[in-house]
Amino acid sequence: xxxxxxxxxxxxxxxxxxxxxxxxxxxxxxxxxxxxxxxxxxxxxxxxxxxxxxxxxxxxxxxxxxxxxxxxxxxxxxxxxxxxxxxxxxxxxxxxxxxxxxxxxxxxxxxxxxxxxxxxxxxxxxxxxxxxxxxxxxxxxxxxxxxxxxxxxxxxxxxxxxxxxxxxxxxx
Amino acid sequence: xxxxxxxxxxxxxxxxxxxxxxxxxxxxxxxxxxxxxxxxxxxxxxxxxxxxxxxxxxxxxxxxxxxxxxxxxxxxxxxxxxxxxxxxxxxxxxxxxxxxxxxxxxxxxxxxxxxxxxxxxxxxxxxxxxxxxxxxxxxxxxxxxxxxxxxxxxxxxxxxxxxxxxxxxxxxxxxxxxxxxxxxxxxxxxxxxxxxxxxxxxxxxxxxxxxxxxxxxxxxxxxxxxxxxxxxxxxxxxxxxxxxxxxxxxxxxxxxxxxxxxxxxxxxxxxxxxxxxxxxxxxxxxxxxxxxxxxxxxxxxxxxxxxxxxxxxxxxxxxxxxxxxxxxxxxxxxxxxxxxxxxxxxxxxxxxxxxxxxxxxxxxxxxxxxxxxxxxxxxxxxxxxxxxxxxxxxxxxxxxxxxxxxxxxxxxxxxxxxxxxxxxxxxxxxxxxxxxxxxxxxx
Lengths: 172, 443
What we know:
The complex is a heterodimer.
Chain A: H1 2-29, H2 44-61, H3 66-72, H4 74-97, H5 106-135, H6 145-169
Helix pairs in contact in A: 1-2, 1-5, 1-6, 4-5
Chain B: H1 3-41, H2 45-78, H3 81-114, H4 121-150, E1 156-158, E2 161-163, H5 167-171, H6 174-203, H7 210-248, H8 250-256, E3 268-270, E4 273-275, E5 280-282, E6 285-287, H9 290-296, H10 318-346, H11 357-366, H12 370-385, E7 389-391, E8 395-396, H13 407-411, H14 413-438
Antiparallel strand pairs in B: 1-2, 3-6, 4-5, 7-8
């Protein structure tokens, strides 16, 4: 059961990593264009939600470790969240308020920069947490694991096809 | 500011910002479905254009909502780890399913937006249904957690750890069911009122063409009916919640009403405050027997007071003032749409009503934010009313936050960044609204 759960989490993490790396790449290459309108639009929060779902699944099943995780990963995770907020604000201004009409400016560079900060922050936090998993004495909370797995499997089944379609074409 | 206050302020700010985006993200999909249905039935392409504009606003709100929600999830883990140590094993599935519902909403919202020009009619409307299900579903499950915090069932604490866990019993409490009904209906009412307020502002402008006036006024009329109906529902469940509190959380109700002496013939106090030295209410208006009537439909109903517990167990009594303001705003929230709807409905039969139509529309426009104020106050009252507990009877708030990290320094960043997010969202929404009305008004 635990192995199956970790396997499912790895799948959702990999989906998130692939989508986020694509968004990071897009946020940087659009800086080379004179007018920056290219980006993944309404799928933005789908990617983000995959991260949240995986994070919550991990925290709920490793609740005995939360106090230790809070001690070691506090700074990088708070920097990541701060960057998420700034990134969201810039996303709304660049792609909804300005609709990508303006020439590339400081906001576009800052937008790309937040992706880099998030990437670095997440990598640092993940390294710290993995180290904790390998060295700490803890028990995995399996009480509700069947709920998580059923929900995650169902969701991945329902969402994979539309997700792939949306990322490939941006439109139907 | 100390670590405790910084932790409380930070989570309070975050939740206060998040609920604005969340409530509109819950109400707006339902409005989109209702008006898309009307537009298809009446073959009104102009109305459909407006629904399309609302769907863009929905993406803006969802973007801001998911980010603020992520911050809250992280805050619970990083700043309130002791709370999560207990809540995780017991009600963790609710946190998980909130994410699942939101993912469902996000994916189908993306499909809904992307398919406007490619899929027409009722088939397009069907794509919007999972958006509404996802939005209401996520509100449902996260409010289950909040209900559990006030009525913590389904586990036993042994040596500081939750054991004998029964997740279903923990989640589906009567408190949770009442909170969900009361809050979700309020979100829908608040959304309809805000949207109606915006449209009312433009509906009676001189620059509007005749067709525009007719369209906007029809939208306002329908939104006011929706707002009024859902406000009535909210009030009914609010009353049911108060009756339930009287039995199960009497100290909370006593704090709302600054009711000190346990007994029958309990008065309802509007305004005023409780003198902690004398335990007497000072100022305000006392309505004799009213609290007993409200709770048990009889003046003989005994209402437990604050005298049942020591003062250290009282919630902050500021909740009484907040509750009074909330009730006043809720009454206006019902009165304003009802008056407007009555005027518009009967203006042809009673001609003198016509002179009040524009003023009542202006009042609707001015009242747009009332629903949001009511929801904010409602949640503040609920959370402050549960103090001094994070999980009632199980975990004091003072024991729930981290002492290992410096929240004070980092804490200042977040209200500022939320303000930036709120301003960016409003800016984007105004641009969408301007584009939407651009074609409808003479230049």
